[in-house]
Amino acid sequence: MALVKSGWLWRQSSILRRWKRNWFVLYLDGSLVYYHDETQRDMDGRIHIKYSCRDVRTGRECRDVQPPEGKSRDCLLTIVLRDGSKTTLCAESEDDAVAWKMAVLEAKSTPVRLHPPKTGAPSRHGLRAGTAHSPFCLAAPGVTHVIVREDPYRVSGDQMALGLLAGAATGAALGSFMWMPCWF
C-alpha cells in the first residue's frame, strides 16, 4: 500500500479524554492506522478517511478541546467523521498539524483505481497484458498501484432495467399471476 505520511501524534481517548501518544500511518487508499509504537505490530485503531471523514480542522477551529500539557492549541487536529464522532489529535508543531491536515485531505480526495489494461498491450517485460501471466499492466520502478475493488452489489440503471425485463419475461413465460394483468 502506498504510504502518504507517518509519524507521532497525540490522540485523545474518546471516553476519559486522556492524551496518548501513537504512531500514525496514512495510506493512499485512505486508511489512517495508529499503532502503539513505530514497530507497527500492535494496531490500536483505524479510520477509513475516504468513507468516514466529513471534515478536518486544525488549530483554533478545534473548539472545546484542551491540548496536551505543554502543547499549543495551534497543534490540534480534529477529524470529524460522518457518524458525528470526532477524533482529536495533536501534532508536535503547528506546521506538522497543517501537514497532517493536507495529507488527510489529499488521501480523502485522491481516487485510487487501477483500470485493467487493453488486452494484447505489451508490458515492459514483453508479456501481454490480460494473459494468465500478467493480469495487470506492469509499471516502471517506483510507481505504486493501488487496487480498489468495485462494490459487487452496486447496480447501474441499465442493469436494473434488464433485470426487470428478464423478470417480466420469466413471469409471463411461467404464467405467474403477478404478470397476468399486464397481458389482458
TrEMBL record:
List residues of the PH domain.
2-109
The answer to whether the entry has keyword Cell inner membrane is: no
Highest taxon, organism lineage: Eukaryota
Q: Which GO terms describe its biological process?
A: regulation of cell differentiation
What the entry lists under PROSITE patterns is as follows: PH_DOMAIN
Where does the sequence pass through the membrane?
161-180
Matching InterPro entries:
PH-like_dom_sf, PH_domain, PLEKHB1/2
For this UniProt entry, what's an example GO CC term? membrane
* Localization annotation: Membrane
Instruction: Give yes or no: UniProt keyword Cell inner membrane.
Output: no
Q: Which UniProt keywords apply?
A: Membrane, Transmembrane, Transmembrane helix
Q: Which SUPFAM superfamilies match?
A: PH domain-like
For this protein, the record's Pfam families field holds: PH (PF00169)
Name listed for the protein in its UniProt record: PKHB1 protein
Organism of derivation: Uria aalge
Q: What is the lineage of its organism?
A: Eukaryota, Metazoa, Chordata, Craniata, Vertebrata
